[in-house]
Specification:
- By secondary structure, this protein is of the alpha/beta class.
- The protein folds into 2 domains: 111 residues, no CATH class; 337 residues, 3-Layer(aba) Sandwich (Rossmann fold), CATH 3.40.50.
- It has 19 helices and 12 strands.
- Helix 6 links the parallel strand 1 and strand 2.
- Helix 10 packs across helix 11, helix 13 packs parallel to helix 15 and helix 17 packs antiparallel against helix 18.
- The relative contact order is 0.09.
C-alpha cells in the first residue's frame, strides 16, 4: 500500500506537466459549484420541505457543518468518479491488473526520458547490443542503435541468400529490446518456428522481410516495424550495401581466408584481421548524423570480430566517431568468445579495435599483421593515432565464477597496457545468475552514472 502511494505521489513531481492542469480543473469545479450553489440556495431557502427532506438536507444543522459535509461528500464522489472513468478509458492501453502506482510510474519514466534523456548512439550487434538497449530504455528514449549487416547465419542467413534482403536477425532483437518486454506483440516478434517449412525462422525476421517487400526498402521496414511495437528509439543499419565479412586466420605456417560471419568463429583459429568485400562500403547517412549529434557514443558489448568491429570497418563511421564531441565508451565483454577471442585480455580487445580503425597506409598495416599477432600492429597504430574511444567500461566482479558447464568461456582479465590513452572504468555489471553475461540494468545504470560525471 505504501509503495503504491509512493509511486502515485510521483504524479505530483515537477516537470511532469500534470499539476499545471490540476489548478484549472479545481478552479473550474469551484466556479461550477458556485453557480450551482447559488441556484440551489434559492430553492433551499425559499421552499418549505417535508420533514423527511429537511432531515436529509440537514436543515437543522449549522450551515458551516452542512457545507463541510456536502463538500467532503462531493469531493469524494467526484474523485472516485474521475478515477473509475480514467481506469475504464486506460484499460485498453494498459497491461492487465495495472494499478494507480503503475500508471504514475510510467508517466514519471516517460516524462523523464522525453525531457532529460541524452542522445545515446550504441554501435554493435548480436545479443550484447540488445542487452544494453534493454537497460538504456529506462533512462532515455533518444536511443539510436547502429547495427552490423554482416550476419549470414541461421534464419537471417537463409533469408539473405534466398530473398536478397539484409539480415534481419540482429535488428529484430534490437526492436524487441526497445519495446515493452511484457507485450504479447513483442513475444510474438521473437517467436521461432520449431517445425515445418518455417523451422528455424523467427516471426520477427519474416515480418521485417515482408515489410521490406511492402515498403520497398529495408530501412523503411525497420521504421515501420518499430512503430508496430512502439519502440523507444531508432534502429539503423551501418550500411545498406550487401557486404560479406571475411577474416584472415593464423594457421601457423600460413594465413588462411575465412568467408562469412558465422564461419569465422567456427574456424577456431587466431584471427589476424577481419574485413569486408566490397572493402569500402558507404555508411547509411542517418547513421553519420546520429553520431555527430550524439551526447554519448557507445560501442559494444558484443562479439568483438563479428558484431562490434564490422560496424567500424565502414570508414565514414570511424571518421564521424573521431569528429564527434560526445564522450566515447567501449564496453568490453564479460567473457571471451570461443573461436574468436580465446585467451583475450581487456587490452587485447581494445588493441583489436585500434588495429582495425587507426588510419595508416595499407602497406604498413599488412606488414604489421603479417609479421606477428595483433600486438605488433597495435603498437604501430598507437604511435600513429590516439584511441578511437575515451573510456573502457569493464566488469570487476569476480565473485561469481563461470560454471563448469560453460568451461569453454573464460572471464576477460582486466590486464591493460600503460601506454594506451583509454581510461579504464571497472564496475560490477554482470548478471549474477549468468556470470558470463552483462546485466542489462546494472550496465545501463553504470554507463549513465559515468556519463553524468563527465558532462
Amino acid at each position: 500500500m505504501l509503495a503504491s502511494l509512493k509511486s502515485a505521489a510521483r504524479l505530483l513531481y515537477p516537470g511532469l506537466g500534470l499539476k499545471r492542469w490540476l489548478a484549472p480543473l479545481l478552479i473550474g469545479l469551484v466556479i461550477l459549484g458556485l453557480g450551482i450553489g447559488l441556484f440551489l440556495r434559492e430553492l433551499y431557502a425559499e421552499i418549505t420541505y417535508p420533514p423527511l427532506f429537511q432531515l436529509l438536507l440537514l436543515q437543522s444543522w449549522p450551515r458551516w457543518v452542512r457545507g463541510t459535509i456536502f463538500a467532503v461528500l462531493g469531493a469524494g464522489l467526484t474523485g472516485y468518479s474521475f478515477f473509475q472513468l480514467n481506469k475504464t478509458l486506460l484499460e485498453a492501453f494498459l497491461p492487465n491488473q495495472a494499478t494507480v502506482g503503475y500508471v504514475a510510474e510510467q508517466v514519471y519514466l516517460h516524462r523523464r526520458r522525453r525531457r532529460g534523456g541524452p542522445k545515446v548512439v550504441v554501435i554493435g550487434g548480436g545479443t550484447g547490443l540488445s542487452v544494453l538497449l534493454r537497460g538504456l530504455k529506462g533512462h532515455t528514449e533518444n536511443i539510436t542503435a547502429i547495427v552490423t549487416v554482416a550476419d549470414d547465419g541461421g534464419s537471417s542467413g537463409k533469408l539473405r541468400r534466398e530473398l536478397g534482403v539484409l539480415p534481419p536477425g540482429d535488428f529484430r532483437n534490437c526492436i524487441a529490446a526497445l519495446a515493452d518486454d511484457e507485450s504479447l506483440t513483442t513475444q510474438l516478434f521473437q517467436y521461432r518456428f520449431r517445425s515445418g517449412g518455417l523451422e528455424g525462422h523467427s516471426f520477427g525476421n519474416l515480418f521485417i522481410t515482408a515489410m521490406t517487400e511492402i515498403t520497398g526498402s529495408f530501412e523503411e521496414a525497420l521504421y515501420e516495424s518499430g512503430q508496430v511495437l512502439n519502440i523507444r528509439g531508432a534502429i539503423l543499419p551501418s550500411t545498406l550495401e550487401n557486404v560479406t565479412l571475411f577474416a584472415e586466420v593464423d594457421e601457423g605456417a600460413q594465413t588462411r581466408k575465412v568467408e562469412g560471419e558465422s564461419a569465422i568463429p567456427e574456424a577456431r583459429l587466431p584471427i589476424e584481421r577481419v574485413y569486408f568485400e566490397p572493402d569500402t562500403p558507404r555508411a547509411f547517412p542517418p547513421v553519420l548524423q546520429a553520431i555527430l549529434n550524439a551526447d554519448l557514443i557507445v560501442a559494444g558489448p558484443g562479439s568483438l570480430y563479428t558484431s562490434v568491429i564490422p560496424n567500424l570497418l565502414v570508414g565514414e563511421i570511424v571518421t564521424a566517431i573521431r569528429a564527434g564531441d560526445a564522450p566515447k565508451f567501449y564496453i568490453c565483454n564479460v567473457a571471451t568468445q570461443p573461436g574468436a577471442t580465446d585467451g583475450y585480455t581487456l587490452d587485447d580487445h581494445v588493441q583489436a579495435i585500434e588495429a582495425h580503425t587507426t588510419i595508416i597506409d595499407d602497406h604498413a598495416f599488412d606488414d604489421a599483421v603479417s609479421h606477428s599477432p595483433n600486438k605488433t600492429a597495435f603498437s604501430a597504430n598507437r604511435q600513429k593515432k590516439e584511441g578511437l574511444f575515451d573510456f573502457v567500461l569493464t566488469n570487476n566482479n569476480i565473485k561469481h565464477p563461470i560454471p563448469n558447464a560453460m568451461s569453454h568461456l573464460q572471464p576477460v582479465l582486466p590486464a591493460f597496457s600503460n601506454d594506451c590513452s583509454y581510461q579504464v572504468i571497472g564496475a560490477d555489471v554482470i548478471d549474477e545468475q549468468h556470470p558470463w553475461r552483462h546485466d542489462a540494468v546494472k550496465l545501463a545504470n553504470q554507463l549513465m552514472e559515468e556519463y553524468k560525471k563527465i558532462k
